């Protein structure tokens, strides 16, 4: 393991459906109007993804944060930055791939999704970002049954390694 | 048949069932008299001594059963002979178990010599470890039977070692050591518990031998601890982990001579890494040892016990519930807490806890933190924005001290909380002595909380207050009640209030606010007499809670504001609902008056006005006296708002008064002032309210609710007034009728005339909006509340919407009161007949009949006015399970009709059954006896395509039932039935999910996608043909305008993607 004892953060309770509070909750309960895609909605999709090595979610490990997600609904753009727990994390690519696959499976096709490592948080930031945002490489990775199995394990809330 | 022959035949039987039956017959025959017994024995003699092992076992078993029944009738010689026989048979591998049962039955009356012989045979000849489980259990049963009685126990101990007690212990250990079966372990626990007494009865030498072998004896029990047992699924034995743990605990605590090994062994398991279950078991074991062995034995181990407890208490697992199915499951901390209150060492343990190093460290850390000057807080490099601190040496360690302070405070707080939870006296000592000393050190006073140690003090004090509250709630019934907070009340209120108002500096202000509110909430929850000691503290706590509701903080998110207000309101509700009269008085004379000041016509819709209404509604819901005051206030301000034509403000207040769940007027008030205010408001509305404008709905709502709260005289007067204005203001007349109470005396014939007139107009008019609904509501209210008043249902065709509404409201009223009269049955029968379009050829009437039947179990959201006279806001109540009774009576008739018909007739019957199912839980609607599921797909498709019209509630019901069945196969309807209809159902779900023309609401689309998600669990052969369609629909719905729908779509899409990649 690259980081045998990562820091675990307190996770916030889900505030969706009937439990949604404030203006967002009121907006969600209205029949008319359109609820724009926002950072919280994207965060809700990726927060439960499991870390490949630890029995914690990416949210609990502070790998994904609502503040690191940018959404432009009108321009169909989503940008997710994630922060590996240690700069030399060898699982960064697998984590990024899991985030990308989850968003591929939950967002409409119109969105262009960028999954990036938060600047300055990983020693191989450039290389990993290039891998994660290269369509051909992502497609090739998802053709690999072994890798896809690991991604599916992360997405289903289990450790992959 | 003669018992001699019968016994012989039984013993020779080859069939086990016959064996059992015959054995019982022989045993009961033997119980008759001694001669029969002798004849039975003679009949089996050759078999009992024969070479056929199976027959020998059966014969021994029959003899044991017979002995158990007739041992009291036999003479001493006979009993001794039988006991001797069974003892001799214990060495026989085949018949050992049966012999043990026989010996156990006869030992009670046998001589000591015979018992000694049995004991010798049991521990030397039987070799239980080599027997099968049932025989081992019988042997343990024999051992326990011998041990339970003093006479036999003495003989047993002597016989086991043939006079040598050391040998006896060794033989007992070797007989039962290594037992694995839980049934036998339970019996072993009892044997180990009884054993010391047997040796004690045999004198000092025996006891000395027992104590010399105590380690070996303890080892047998110790091997089961900590208990790791999980009953297998479908276990028929039904032994729980808790039962086993208790049996092992009894064995471990059997003798004080076990103490040197047992205490340290149990404390080893008080290890947080083993999880809360084992920690709790360990704490229970230590507590049981203390209770059994007493202070003298435990004294030398108390220090060791406290050290283990401290380590356990500081771990998060101490406050987690043990994973146990037992209803007595608790947390390790709760068990340890009881040890502070124990006789064997409570005083010493609590003394050790309160003078513990962690508490002293907390005191020192808070003292150091409080004495720090402000400038010493942060390193200059950090202030400059440089990368981190200088690394030490600069003399600034502010943040480090704060962190250290919080950590040590958290550690000490758990100790204080656990001790405070033990007894009220200890709670007093914790708060008034230890916490006082620490707060002094932290420089927290009742006037100021500006100390830098305030946050750490808050962390320290919260568990102490929580523990004290737990303890006081448990002891709420004791006679002498003393405030556990005593002189510290003011200081603690100040500390928590400062936090609740965001005045304490911390990294996360929201967290501090929530902590502060939690503390104030706990102070408000103390049972009367135990809580705050001073009047100033009580006033301060309620006043500060109100401040916490109305104040705002910079950069606070809307979610955080909502949570803060919710917590503060909950705390105020606790203050008026836990029986502390002084605290309630502080709220009703202080808080309520301050809140009332914020409610004026101009202020109702402001932020402070909204919060004041919310708080008053919550407090009023919890306290009857306050509710009267609040009702009067709301009625008066509503009247003022209506006078000033401020309908928006009036609407907000009406909503607060008439909400079904917590509205201020939804329960009858006895306060004269409130009743007068209600009467004045009704009078005002009858005079002034315009019933044609947008405010009309709120106007009638408040009239009905206020009318329901008027006294009897006012009700009679207002009813007469309402009858007079029936022509000009029919809506108001209907509202007044809805609010009429059954105990009021009024002109019944006048009411009947008014109703007739209203019904005539409603059924002849083409307007079926609010007025028609109100007429139906008035009819329903009269049927519900005045069963003796005759009301004739309109006889027109059911294609008339007014007729349908009146039928529906009256049906609902009759179902609510569980009417079984012939008139009601006639109405139901008429509706069911109207469903059969092959007879009537009128689809409109069939649809109307289905709707009316559906209304019998509830109304749609758009039919809110229809329910005005049948809701809590007009004090109508429903009899328990009324809906289910109606459903179980009518649904089978409808489903039978649907099954026996085709085309539209079938569809309308299914539709009516679905509508009825909307009023009962899915588990009832989908019960196999109704067989509703096969009809749901037809109904859902018809509702999707529009052939049944637009019906949101029925679509919702059908979707919920489909979703419930797909998620839970146990709900009824076989898998084959589900699979048969699955494809058409999934296609209908997909059609609903992608609907964007407004016919399907957000709620319906969301439910359809939830059902689509549930359908992904069906067999692959079923899902495969529709997989692409489901994926397309889910993908399309992922771009739905509403977020809730998108959330469900994403879930469904992921589930179906997983299927498609198989």
UniProtKB/TrEMBL annotation, chain A:
Keyword Glycoprotein assigned: no
UniProt source species: Ostreococcus tauri (Marine green alga)
InterPro entries linked to this entry: FSCA_dom_sf, MIP18, MIP18-like
UniProt domain MIP18 family-like: residue ranges: 41-115
Protein's name in the database: MIP18 family-like domain-containing protein
Keyword entries, A-Z: Chromosome partition
Residue stretches of biased makeup (Basic and acidic residues): 24-37
Start-end of Low complexity biased regions: 11-22
Chain segments carrying region Disordered: 1-37
Protein family per UniProt: Belongs to the MIP18 family.
Gene Ontology BP annotations: chromosome segregation; protein maturation
Record Pfam families: FeS_assembly_P
Cell inner membrane keyword on record: no
GO cellular component: intracellular protein-containing complex; iron-sulfur cluster assembly complex
TrEMBL record, chain B:
InterPro entries in alphabetical order: ARM-type_fold, MMS19, MMS19_C, MMS19_N
Cellular compartment(s): Nucleus
Extent of the signal sequence: none
One cellular-component annotation, GO: cytosolic [4Fe-4S] assembly targeting complex
Domain MMS19 C-terminal: 719-1012
Keyword vocabulary terms for this entry: DNA damage, DNA repair, Nucleus, Repeat
Function: Key component of the cytosolic iron-sulfur protein assembly (CIA) complex, a multiprotein complex that mediates the incorporation of iron-sulfur cluster into apoproteins specifically involved in DNA metabolism and genomic integrity. In the CIA complex, MMS19 acts as an adapter between early-acting CIA components and a subset of cellular target iron-sulfur proteins.
Name this polypeptide is given: MMS19 nucleotide excision repair protein
Organism: Ostreococcus tauri
């Amino acid at each position: 393991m690259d980081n045998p004892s990562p820091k675990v953060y307190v996770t916030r309770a889900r505030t969706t459906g009937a439990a949604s509070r404030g203006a967002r909750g009121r907006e969600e309960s209205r029949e008319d109007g359109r609820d724009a895609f926002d950072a919280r909605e994207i965060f809700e999709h990726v927060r439960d993804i499991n870390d490949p090595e630890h029995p914690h979610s990416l949210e609990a490990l502070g790998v994904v944060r609502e503040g690191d997600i940018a959404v432009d609904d009108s321009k169909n753009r989503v940008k997710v930055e994630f922060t590996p727990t240690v700069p030399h994390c060898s699982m960064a690519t697998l984590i990024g791939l899991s985030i990308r696959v989850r968003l591929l499976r939950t967002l409409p096709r119109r969105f262009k999704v960028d999954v990036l490592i938060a600047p300055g948080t990983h020693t191989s930031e450039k290389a990993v970002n290039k891998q994660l945002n290269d369509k051909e490489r992502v497609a090739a990775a998802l053709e690999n049954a072994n890798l896809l199995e690991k991604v599916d394990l992360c997405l289903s809330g289990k450790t992959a390694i | 048949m003669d018992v001699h022959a019968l016994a012989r035949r039984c013993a020779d039987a080859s069939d086990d069932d016959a064996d059992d039956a015959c054995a019982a017959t022989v045993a009961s025959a033997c119980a008759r008299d001694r001669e029969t017994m002798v004849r039975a024995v003679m009949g089996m003699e050759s078999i009992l001594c024969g070479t056929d092992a199976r027959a020998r076992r059966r014969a021994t078993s029959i003899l044991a059963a017979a002995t158990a029944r007739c041992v009291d009738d036999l003479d001493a010689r006979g009993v001794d002979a039988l006991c001797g026989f069974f003892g001799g048979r214990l060495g026989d591998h085949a018949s050992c178990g049966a012999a043990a049962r026989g010996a156990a039955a006869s030992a009670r009356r046998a001589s000591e010599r015979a018992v000694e012989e049995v004991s010798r045979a049991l521990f030397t000849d039987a070799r239980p470890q080599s027997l099968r489980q049932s025989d081992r259990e019988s042997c343990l049963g024999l051992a326990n039977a011998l041990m339970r009685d003093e006479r036999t126990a003495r003989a047993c101990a002597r016989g086991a070692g043939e006079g040598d007690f050391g040998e006896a212990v060794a033989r007992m250990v070797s007989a039962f050591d290594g037992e694995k079966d839980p049934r036998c372990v339970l019996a072993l626990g009892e044997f180990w518990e009884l054993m010391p007494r047997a040796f004690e009865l045999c004198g000092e030498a025996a006891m000395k031998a027992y104590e010399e072998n105590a380690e070996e004896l303890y080892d047998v029990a110790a091997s089961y601890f900590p208990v790791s047992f999980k009953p297998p699924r479908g276990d028929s034995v039904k032994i729980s982990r808790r039962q086993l743990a208790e049996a092992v605990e009894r064995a471990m605590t059997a003798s004080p001579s076990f103490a040197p090994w047992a205490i340290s062994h149990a404390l080893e398991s008080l290890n947080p890494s083993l999880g809360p279950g084992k920690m709790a078991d360990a704490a229970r074991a230590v507590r049981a040892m203390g209770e059994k062995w007493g202070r003298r034995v435990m004294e030398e181990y108390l220090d060791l016990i406290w050290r283990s407890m401290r380590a356990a208490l500081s771990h998060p697992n101490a406050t987690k519930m043990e994973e146990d199915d037992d209803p007595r499951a608790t947390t390790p901390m709760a068990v340890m807490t009881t040890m502070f209150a124990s006789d064997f060492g409570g005083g010493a343990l609590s003394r050790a806890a309160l003078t513990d190093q962690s508490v002293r460290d907390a005191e020192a850390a808070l003292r150091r933190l409080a004495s720090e000057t402000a400038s010493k807080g942060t390193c200059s490099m950090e202030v400059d924005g440089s990368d981190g601190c200088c690394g030490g040496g600069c003399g600034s360690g502010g943040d480090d001290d704060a962190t250290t302070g919080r950590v040590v405070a958290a550690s000490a707080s758990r100790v204080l909380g656990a001790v405070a939870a033990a007894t009220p006296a200890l709670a007093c000592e914790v708060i008034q002595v230890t916490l006082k000393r620490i707060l002094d050190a932290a420089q927290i006073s009742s006037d100021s909380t500006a100390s830098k140690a305030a946050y750490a003090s808050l962390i320290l004090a919260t568990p102490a207050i929580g523990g004290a509250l737990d303890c006081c709630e448990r002891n709420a019934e004791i006679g002498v009640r003393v405030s556990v907070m005593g002189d510290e009340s003011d200081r603690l209120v100040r500390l928590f209030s400062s936090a609740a108002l965001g005045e304490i500096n911390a990294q996360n202000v929201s967290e501090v606010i929530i902590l502060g509110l939690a503390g104030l909430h706990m102070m408000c929850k103390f049972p009367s007499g135990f809580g705050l000691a001073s009047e100033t503290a009580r006033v301060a706590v309620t006043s500060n809670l109100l401040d916490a509701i109305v104040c705002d903080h910079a950069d606070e998110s809307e979610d955080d504001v909502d949570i803060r207000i919710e917590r503060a309101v909950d705390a105020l509700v606790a203050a008026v609902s836990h029986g502390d009269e002084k605290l309630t008085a502080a709220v009703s004379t202080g808080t309520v008056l301050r809140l009332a000041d914020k409610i004026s016509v101009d202020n109702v819709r402001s932020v402070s006005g909204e919060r004041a209404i919310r708080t008053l509604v919550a407090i009023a819901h919890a306290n009857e006296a306050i509710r009267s005051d609040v009702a009067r206030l709301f009625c008066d301000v509503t009247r003022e708002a209506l006078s000033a034509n401020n309908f928006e403000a009036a609407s907000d207040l009406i909503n607060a008064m008439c909400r079904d769940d917590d509205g201020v007027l939804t329960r009858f008030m006895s306060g004269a002032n409130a009743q007068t205010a209600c009467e004045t408001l009704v009078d005002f509305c009858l005079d002034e309210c315009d019933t044609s404008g947008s405010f009309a709905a709120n106007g009638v709502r408040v009239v009905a609710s206020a009318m329901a709260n008027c006294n009897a005289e006012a009700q009679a007067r207002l009813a007469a007034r309402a009858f007079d204005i029936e022509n000009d203001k029919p809506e108001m007349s209907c509202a007044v009728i809805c609010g009429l109470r059954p105990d009021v005396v009024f002109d019944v014939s006048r009411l009947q005339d008014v109703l007739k007139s209203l019904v005539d107009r409603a059924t002849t008019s083409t307007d079926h909006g609010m007025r028609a609904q109100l007429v139906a509501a008035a009819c329903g209210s009269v049927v519900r509340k005045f069963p003796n008043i005759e009301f004739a249902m309109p006889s027109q065709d059911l294609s008339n919407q007014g007729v349908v509404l009146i039928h529906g409201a009256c049906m609902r009223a009759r179902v609510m009161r569980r009417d079984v009269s012939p008139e009601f049955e006639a109405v139901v029968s008429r509706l069911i007949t109207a469903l059969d379009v092959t007879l009537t050829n009128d689809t409109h009437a069939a649809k109307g009949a289905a709707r009316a039947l559906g209304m019998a179990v509830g109304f749609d959201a758009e039919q809110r006015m229809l329910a005005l006279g049948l809701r809590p806001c007009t004090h109508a109540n429903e009899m328990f399970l009324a809906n289910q009774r109606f459903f179980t009576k009518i649904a089978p008739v409808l489903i039978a009709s649907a099954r026996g018909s085709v085309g539209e007739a079938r569809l309308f019957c299914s539709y009516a059954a679905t509508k009825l199912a909307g009023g009962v839980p899915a588990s009832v609607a989908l019960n196999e006896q109704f067989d509703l599921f096969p009809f749901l797909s037809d109904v859902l498709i018809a509702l999707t395509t529009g052939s049944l019209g637009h019906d949101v509630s029925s679509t919702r019901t059908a979707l919920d039932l489909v979703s419930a069945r797909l998620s839970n196969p146990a709900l009824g309807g076989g898998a084959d039935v589900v699979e048969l209809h699955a494809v058409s159902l999934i296609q209908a779900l997909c059609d609903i999910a992608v609907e964007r023309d407004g016919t399907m609401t957000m709620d319906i689309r969301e439910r359809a996608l939830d059902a689509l998600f549930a359908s992904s669990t069906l067999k692959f052969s079923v899902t495969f043909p529709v997989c692409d369609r489901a994926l397309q629909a889910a993908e399309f719905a992922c771009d739905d305008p509403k977020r809730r729908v998108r959330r469900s779509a994403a879930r469904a899409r992921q589930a179906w993607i997983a299927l498609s990649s198989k």
